[in-house]
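Progress note, sequence design subtask.
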């Protein structure tokens, strides 16, 4: 997965392209490049490394030109070298292309083109595209037709943007990878990008493209057609994300900003979904009775979203509904049988994760009813699922998911309440106490953010070679998530376990050098306490994540305080403490927190 930006405007494009690339760097940061069209043809500059490194080397050749494309890469085909950076060109530099996705038939296309005399300079699958376009130009086709013909030959997934020498026009097409058009008919012109934050500071008016769409962007407008050139109509929408929200503000990192945004993002998530008297749930397209024909729920997701799915599944099981969370990438190997009474919930912050989309498609084909729970309006998952529910967390830029996990878990909990009431015919008896607690969740998170001792604790244990996270019941997905976050941004070894599992093997790894973070949610805490003690007696420092006055504090070495809450919500507040621990540990170790090595925000390859 990679970031794409393209722009056609009335002033020079280069600064806008570089800003767009910086905004998109969460999609990949192995290499970056730009191409600009000016009076003397197409000029390309690209290199391995981050956009900041590209910026330092931008030379005056790119200063002129109102049309341009840019790319920030997360490597799939070929290592992150200067040669493999996008844009890629044909041998004459008359065509420049940026691409996100995978061209599955690139080897075949490359050998045909090589046989016709085309010379390739990179290891990428992308490079076949400008050569194919050039091939059709050489055969006498006009620019637009040559672009369409080249795109028609591609198999696999792509979002492609191309620029051809001698005209102020951009061509773009999508199949399986996101692409969105930004429209500012005033000063800034037209944009194409893989994601809205790329151009959000210039315009909030967008059109989401669908698979099979081809866009031609000229200085006076945008034309959208299908591959054969037939007009297609796509809505213009206004995005209600504030560009300020997408910036770092006064925080050192997006991740810290997004952790601290949780009181606000949770308020947005809950708003309008809990009645004024906090006694009933309103879930947009899912009124009471929406799930009476469901007898089983499967959550499919990856990474942090999978942990939210585990949270949702456990909450449903506790409410008496058959539910299971499955890793989306394993779903293809061993999908449980589904039928029309199975509800498959795809949980995906971005709505573009290829593994999750794959599972969603399989569920659709198998005849299940599908719902997407996502943060991104207009994403592929929204379009492909039967129904959708937004988590409304606002843009999340840090590669490590934080506020979206909290919002996903809350939405899944609300959805779970609705499903459980419909399936069991018993509107939850606990709703009266649960909903008022939920409406106060943003305040509890605020309290934790203000009072947390996480920075001191993270620094105290930062020399440790390994970190364990344990929890029981709804504390289990929180332990998994705590460990994922920790390893993702600190590069230190961390594992999450169901607390009762520690004694079945992992205890062998416990030493006085392995801090154990024990999450107490109020569900069978005495068991977690016993398991933490088993590690404590082997010398492991125990960090108890629990309310003040909790029995765990009698033996714990350190305390991360959480308010005394309904067990369904306690884990979410505990998770905020663990997010802070990971952040401060990574900061103390000097890691590049927003862009951990080898990762990217949204993984659009299987
Ligand atoms: O966009 P998605 O929620 O589908 O992404 C799934 C995972 O790639 C993602 O949660 C990943 O695990 C995060 N970087 C973890 O912080």
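Output:
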């Amino acid at each position: 997965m990679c970031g794409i930006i393209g722009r056609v405007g009335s002033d020079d494009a280069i600064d806008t392209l570089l800003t767009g690339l910086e905004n998109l760097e969460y999609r990949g940061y192995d290499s970056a490049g730009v191409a600009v069209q000016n009076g003397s043809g197409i000029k390309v500059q690209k290199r391995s490394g981050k956009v900041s490194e590209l910026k330092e080397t931008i030379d005056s050749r790119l200063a002129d030109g109102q049309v341009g494309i840019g790319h920030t890469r997360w490597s799939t085909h070929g290592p992150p070298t200067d040669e493999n950076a996008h844009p890629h060109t044909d041998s004459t530099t008359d065509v420049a292309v940026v691409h996100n996705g995978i061209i599955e038939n690139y080897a075949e296309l490359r050998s045909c083109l090589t046989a016709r005399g085309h010379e390739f300079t990179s290891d990428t699958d992308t490079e076949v595209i400008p050569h194919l376009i050039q091939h059709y130009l050489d055969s006498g086709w006009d620019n637009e037709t040559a672009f369409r013909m080249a795109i028609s030959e591609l198999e696999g997934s792509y979002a492609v943007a191309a620029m051809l020498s001698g005209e102020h026009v951009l061509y773009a097409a999508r199949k399986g990878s996101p692409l969105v058009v930004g429209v500012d008919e005033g000063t800034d012109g037209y944009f194409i990008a893989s994601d809205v934050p790329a151009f959000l500071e210039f315009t909030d008016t967008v059109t989401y493209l669908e698979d099979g769409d081809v866009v031609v962007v000229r200085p006076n407008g945008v034309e959208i057609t299908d591959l054969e050139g037939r007009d297609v109509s796509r809505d213009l929408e206004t995005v209600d994300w504030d560009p300020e929200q997408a910036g770092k503000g006064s925080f050192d990192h997006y991740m810290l900003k997004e952790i601290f945004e949780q009181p606000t993002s949770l308020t947005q998530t809950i708003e309008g979904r809990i009645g004024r008297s906090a006694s009933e749930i309103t879930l947009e397209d899912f009124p009471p009775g929406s799930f009476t024909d469901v007898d089983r729920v499967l959550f499919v997701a990856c990474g942090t979203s999978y942990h939210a799915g585990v949270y949702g599944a456990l909450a449903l099981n506790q409410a008496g509904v058959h539910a299971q969370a499955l890793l989306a990438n394993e779903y293809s190997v061993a999908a449980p049988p589904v039928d029309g009474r199975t509800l498959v919930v795809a949980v995906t912050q971005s709505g573009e994760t290829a593994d999750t989309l794959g599972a969603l498609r399989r569920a659709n084909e198998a005849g299940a009813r599908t719902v997407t729970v996502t943060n991104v309006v207009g994403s592929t998952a929204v379009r492909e699922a039967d129904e959708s529910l937004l988590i409304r967390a606002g843009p999340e830029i840090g590669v490590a998911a934080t506020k979206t996990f909290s919002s996903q878990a809350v939405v899944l909990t609300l959805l779970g309440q609705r499903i459980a009431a419909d399936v069991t015919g018993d509107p939850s008896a606990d709703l009266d106490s649960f909903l008022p607690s939920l409406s106060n969740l943003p305040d509890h998170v605020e309290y934790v953010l203000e009072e947390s001792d996480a920075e001191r604790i993270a620094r105290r244990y930062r020399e440790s070679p390994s970190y364990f996270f344990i929890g029981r019941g709804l504390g289990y997905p929180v332990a998994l998530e705590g460990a994922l976050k920790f390893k993702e941004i600190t590069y230190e070894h961390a594992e999450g376990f169901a607390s009762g599992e520690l004694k079945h093997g992992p205890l062998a790894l416990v030493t006085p050098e392995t801090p154990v973070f024990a999450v107490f949610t109020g569900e069978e805490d005495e068991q977690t306490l016993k398991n933490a003690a088993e590690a404590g007696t082997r010398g492991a420092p125990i960090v108890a994540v629990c309310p003040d006055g909790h029995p765990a504090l009698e033996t714990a070495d350190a305390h991360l305080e959480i308010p005394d809450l309904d067990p369904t919500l306690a884990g979410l507040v505990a998770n905020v403490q663990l997010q802070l621990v990971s952040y401060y540990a990574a900061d103390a170790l000097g890691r590049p927190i927003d862009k951990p090595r080898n990762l990217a925000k949204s993984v659009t390859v299987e």
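The chain has 19 helices and 24 strands. Work on this subtask will continue into the next period as scheduled.
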